[in-house]
Amino acid sequence: MALGAWGLGLGGQPADVQVAAAVSLTEALQEIAAAAEKQQRIRVTLNLAASNVLARQIVSGSGADVFISADAAQMDVVAKEGLIRQRVDLLVNQLVVAVRSDSKVALASETDLTKPGVRRIAIGDPAGVPAGVYAKQFLEKAGLWRRLESKIVPTASVRAALAALESGDVDAAMVYRTDLGIARSVRAAFPPLPEPRVLYPAALLSATPHAARFFEYLRSPAAAAIFRRHGFGSVACNEDRVPEAVKAA
Amino acid sequence: MTPELLQVAAFTVATALAATALAVPPAIAIAWVLARGRFPGRALLETVVSLPLVVPPVATGLLLLYVFGRRGPLGASLASAGLDVVFTWRGVVLAMAVMGLPLVVRTARTAFEQVDARYEQVAATLGARPLRVFFSISLPLAARGVVAGAVLGFARALGEFGATIMIAGNIPGRTRTLATAIYSYTETGRDSQAAAVAAVSIGLAFAAVAISNRLAGAAR
Amino acid sequence: MLMLDVRLVQGAFILNVETGIDARAVALVGPSGAGKTTLLEAIAGLRRPQRGTIAVGDHVLFSSARGVDLAPYLRRVGYVPQDVALFPHMKVRANLLYGAARNRDGRGSGAKRPGLDRILAMLEIESLIERGVTDLSGGERQRVALARALLSAPDLLLLDEPLAAVDVPLRRRIIPYLRRVRDELGVPLVHVSHDLAEVEMLADWVVELDGGRVVRSEKRERPLPSY
User: Fold this and answer.
1) B96 pairs with which residues across the strands?
2) What is the DSSP letter of A33?
3) pLDDT digits over A89-123, tens only?
4) Which side of chain B, N or C, has fewer Cβ within a 10 Å radius?
5) Residue of A169, A170, A184, A185 to mutate when probing chain B, most B C-beta within 10 A
6) What ipTM goes with this model?
7) Which residues of C touch B127 (CB under 8 A)?
8) Which is nearest to C157 in space by CA: C126, C124, C120, C202?
């Protein structure tokens, strides 16, 4: 039924757009999806998880229309299968070392993570979860990985690392700066890390017109404003094409 | 077998054994009480003990996380004694023990129920106090069933996933078990490694269940 | 010496027994379902009467009025159930010695503290001692169970149809052993029986139950009805 409706771009049923996106985008995308649903005759379904999990699902045929990954590596997994029709770099973000607000361990820099007061550090699983991959890259470059490895608690996603910190079961977590906005009783130990550059590529996977329109909408000034409000840096806002997309809707 | 797989397999077997050792004594006590006792709250105890069989393991794990987390009612005092549970091997053992307990209780309970109460009564008339009756009559006569239950609990512990990943995480070399390793390898696209781990865990579970069935069969 | 005042309700069945007995060997007779086994179990402490008193001499085992209800392991009442219930996971020796711990604690009177050798000799089971219990004959099982109960130095011995499971010739052979228990060891015994000859050879007191009530309790003189 829905298939017939979207083919004509009209009819009773709004067309469904399946969006698979990095879990760090949860709040921003919920807002954007709501805004897009008001403008376009679509219903956006968000599948939010660690990007490596989503990449596996897409490769196995989960049928997402749009994929937003938290790193290039997981987007490449999907690209290698020839599933991508259009790819852009959408957003940037930064890693931050977070502690509980009531933490008594003073951390002035990443080197202080070696202090004995920091017994466990949660990061996304560096074997695949982008936040963990970035965190490991950073710690390796800082020459700290070997010394900290025994303290590392890998988690299934960046939000799981944040949750472990909130519950007090770890002493620090390396998460995205944007994650702190939704965290309870958690703060940045020191300013966000300048490196590595956290880049979110977005890809259009399906050929349906409403998926393409939503993909355009992601790059509209309206979406960029929402992303920015949630702390993301917008890199792919296409000022020329967006008005067309909006008109088309 | 790669050294990594060998380590994960050895760790899983060791923690499952520890979990079995942890679960069996209370399981025997509960099984005995359920088989022979008539007291208020018996039905409640029976239900509570069976819960881990039917509740999603992740929910059981969540409950354990609340109780044994560093800020939890039990976890806080354990942590101050230097015994962290969350994200440690102790968490793995705890999750496995809780998930294996109902199976041990059920099998042991059936075994106790099959012991003719006559033997216990006669032992009492011969002057044996209840504890002596239990250890010299009831337990030896139910032994095969109890051991079969323990092996079954061990097999369940080997495959535990949901509660383990909640409370102990999935830390390579420290809390990663066969089950969580399969998950990790799959999520990171290492399919052949996942398949190798799966094969090992299937083999172990098969052996454990076969032993359990053999013992239970011989007890009947 | 044996004081029974027992009211025990068990579903639709009501056991209502009140009698005093002064004898060395009591035969408990009556039709099936009369409450004979239930009464033995109440004396042994395996069933709890709703009210009443059970006393062996001045040793009160149960008294609802005084709030006494001794646990079976404190009653010093030997009990051999109909199926004798030898512990199947133990050899004959371990079965025999199971209750001997109480025998050794010195609380039994001298006369009631027979040694293992004497019991083995009296019941002629010396040769069985290293056997497993599962390959004993019916008569051997009876004698081993009897010896096991005696070795726990009981003040009173309860036998539930001790000879029901053995055939008639063997029965005639076992009765003398029971008489020895009665006469040589001086352990008073209560035995449930359906067999007239057995009662005549063993009992000096007869209690007859019917429908949970005592219809007769007296020294054995009159001829007995047959069941």
Assistant:
1) none
2) H
3) 999 999 999 999 998 888 999 999 999 999 999 99
4) C
5) A169
6) 0.89
7) 73, 76, 99, 101-102, 152
8) C202
